[in-house]
Amino acid sequence: MDTPDPESSTTIEERFFVNVKGAMDSLQLFLHTSKKLASNLGKPFNRDSKPVRIDEDEFFRLKLRLEAIRATLKRSDGLGLSDEFDRLWMRELRDLEYRAEDVVETIQFEVLRGTRFEEFKRELLESTGKRKREAYNLFPSVTSASVFLKIKKITDRFHEIARQRDALRLQEEDGNRLVKPSPITPMSSHSACQLVGRKDDMDKLIEWLKSDELSHGTYSVKTIVGMAGVGKTTLVQHVYHDHAIQSSFDLKIWVHMSQQYDVVEVMRKIVEGIGNTSPYLSELDSLHHTAIHHFRDKKFLLVLDDMWDEDPRHWSSLQVPLTYGAKGSKLVVTTRSMKVSQIMCAKRYHLRCLSDDSSWELCRNRACQGRKIELDCNMKAIGKRIVSRCKGLPLAAEAVGVSLSFSHEEKHWNRVLENLLLTEDDEVSKILPALKVSYDLLPLHLKRCFAYCSLFPKGYVFQKDVLVKLWMAQGFIDCNGSSSLEEVGGKYFYYLLDRCFFLHPPFHYPTEERYVMHDLYHELAEDVSGKEFNRNEDSKMPTLDEKVRHSSIVPPEHLLEEAIQLGSFGGQDLRSFLFVGEKKPEGVPFPMNISHDLFVLLDCLRVLDLSNTDIENLPCNLGNLIHLRYLSFENSRIRCLPESIGGLFNLQTLNLRECIYLDELPKGLKLLDNLRHLYLPLYRSRRILMPYGIGQMTSLQTLSVFVMGTETESCRIEELSNLVNLKGEMHVLGINNVTDPKFAEEANMQNKLKVEKLTLEWSVADSTSPDLNGELASEVLEKLKPYHKLEELIINGFCGTRLPSWLSDQVLLKLTTLDLKRCNKVEKLPSLGKLPSLKRLSVHSMVRLT
Questions:
Q1: Which of 171, 182, 653, 803 could be bridged to 677 by S-S, CB 3.0 to 4.6 A?
Q2: Are 263 and 285 in contact (CB under 8 A)?
Q3: Which residue range or ranges hold the NB-ARC domain (predicted)?
Q4: What is 732-774 written as a DSSP string?
């Protein structure tokens, strides 16, 4: 006898509370351990404090308990909890996880503060002559009292939640549980919906069905892919019954797929559809045998409607009887997932949204209930404004049409319009459950990634790489294998893209991966984000609920007359704050003032984005944000960063693009061991001063600009040697300051395996000077030989007399683009014809070239 599954005899709720009890036990042990660690912190640290001493075993156990809580939360998400009290309890447990995580990182910071920052403070005192108190206050310590207070709050909240759970939760004997109807209604081959604006789509599908195309032996497969409510099923229903294909097939079968895929049940439905009787078979082999008997030498049309399953093994089992059909057979699959197309090796037909005119026709027909009702100009104008809110989604247009059908008075239609503009209408609430099915099937980490998008306004153009870095900063990305966080985050994004949570924009960005989100999916993101997320589309600072962890400000489109006062938020446990202001064509940033104590109050931040604002100076207490992972001041008027930024040891991304007023980088930058992406301004009136020590930042993957200066404390080209993880695009400036070719050789440009585009630039002003040593410049460039898979190379302002030999030695096998600019002393080009992949060559401002 088989051993029964230990979970088979328990309910979801019982398993849930077993997990919850484990989480409680783990949390209690975590709190006990944290108190012991907090006691080890001793008295408040002062400038003479020594490194914090914490027992490693205890700290390791503390982190294990935190991981146990995370694992419990992750598993509980898969239990399908329907009780609102259970979900509320899990949100409270999540809040405790956040707070416990902050305490762990605070203790980690204290260890590093003692071991790393003291030496840097002494270095600052020697090099800058700053007053002793100012230098020592750059990296303030955390007092044991503050850590203990946080632990006490966690403890008190934990006991309060435990008491509420026991006192308030209803028991099974208190009443019968209601069963909620599924938001997905199974569809047959017969349609009650109109087909509007789909003539081209229908003609293309019929043409394919009548063709002799074969992609899987005797049959061919096509998937109709699109978001929920776009009309996939309706289109195929009308094609299925079109008279043009009635005589083209011997067998026609329509099967509606369930979310929970069962290959035996699917085969039973197929056999039932062929014989019009329900087969009394339970074994897959018997069902295969019966299906093969019916399919043999018959030309069939099989429709699998609303396919969710993405397991290749299930597809292999399903296609066994299909191979026995006659040539010209066809399989049509409707799905929200592009992954289904890949698994089936099928041609994909992406069904787009309707035009506004077609949406209005569909809505009007539904509103008038098929009757010929004349609408005056005002009613038509109101109706078209309403339809524009549907963004081409037939499901939304029909739902709104039903609402309009209750009355054909202008007053009623205006009321529907006002409700839509406020996004509080009943029709949207009817559509969201259909979309939410896709969300419910996402794993926990992707649910959090999707909800995070609610911080951005409707119509926002998402940059994939930026969004991935924001997810990284919040710890949403699980990375346990050899792939990097960025690679796994990219897979997360494409997973959502394949399931229509993101769309390609109607306009194209040839060089960047940018995407948009349909308005209804955006409303779904708002719906599932709950109280944890807040987006404010006003210029005034909001008063936030204490449960808010992520907040954004989306300023009005018109230029603000008064500065935004970035002061206290009310809630002090924010993990994200983003200013989502689009860069204006005239380049004028949004006015903003920052209070001096802002970074003291918001010391839990993981993400801070103040791009496109006019801030010039930052408070020195920026270093208080010890949890920060993502920091952006792109296109701001920032002039310098405080030295305390060196204390942000968790920082992963620092974005200073288009900060044209930035003069220099802080010396403490070299302390940022975890910094992965450093974006710097390129086009400025003068070059930025980069301090020595960049070579210590070995985690760097992005270093958009590397500038060498003449100052003693500026960075040197040999520092590039250890930056082996650099990738993408890199711009090396000030090569004229390299005084010896051996330093260029030590840069080891050949170990930059993932750099695709490289710019090597000398000072343009110096390139024409007769006093420069042209031979030295030539030898330096010779030593800067890049990796052989480089794709684009720009050499600008070169002041040497000859170009390097590696341009003609068949070394750069993948080089497709070569730009030579202002190489004013070069008289002869090398044999560029030996570059096998070269497609674009640009040579200009080379006055001596013969």
A1: 653
A2: no
A3: 199-370
A4: EE-GGG---HHHHHHT-GGG-TEEEEEEEE--TTTTT-TTS-H
Query: How far, in Å, are 258, 460, 775, 780, 811 from residue 743 at the CA level?
Result: 65, 46, 15, 8, 22
Q: How far is CA 102 from CA 54, 59, 345, 822, in A?
A: 17, 14, 47, 53
In three-state secondary structure terms, 527 is: helix
- Residue 239 CB-density burial (10 A; 0-12 exposed, 13-18 middle, 19+ buried): buried
CA distance 679 to 661: 15
Rounded to whole angstroms, the Cα distance separating 40 from 114 reads 14
Q: Is the pTM of this model over 0.70?
A: yes
C-alpha–C-alpha distance, residues 446 and 522, integer Å: 15
**Model confidence pLDDT, tens digit, residues 267-287:** 888 888 887 666 667 778 888
The predicted-structure confidence for 677-692, as pLDDT tens digits, reads as follows 999 988 654 678 888 8
pLDDT 10s digits, 307-365 = 888 888 888 888 888 888 888 899 999 988 888 888 888 888 888 888 888 888 888 88
Q: How many CB atoms lie within 10 A of CB 694?
A: 22
44-96: per-residue pLDDT in tens?
333 344 444 444 555 565 566 667 667 766 766 655 555 566 667 777 778 87
End-to-end C-alpha distance for the chain, whole angstroms: 90
* CB of 356 closer than 8 Å to CB of 387: yes
Does the pLDDT of residue 172 top 60, yes or no? no
Rounded Cα gap, residues 489 and 483, in angstroms: 10
| 685 membership: H or E segment, kind and range | none
Name 574's Cβ contacts closer than 8 Å, sequence gap at least 6. Answer: 544, 548, 549, 550, 551, 602, 604, 605
Residues 147, 149, 154: CA angle, nearest 5 degrees: 100
Task: Give residue for tokens 């409680």.
Answer: 24
Cα angle 671, 676, 681 (rounded to 5 degrees) comes to 90
Per-residue pLDDT, 65: 60
The region, left, alpha or beta by phi > 0 then psi within -120 to 50, assigned to residue 810 is left
CB 631 within 8 A of CB 650: no
Query: Number of C-alpha atoms within 13 angstroms, CB side, residue 72?
Result: 26
Quick check: 633 pLDDT over 90? yes
Collect all residues with Cβ–Cβ distance below 8 Å to 89 and sequence separation of at least 6: 20, 161, 165
Q: Which two tokens stand for residue 680?
A: 């710097």
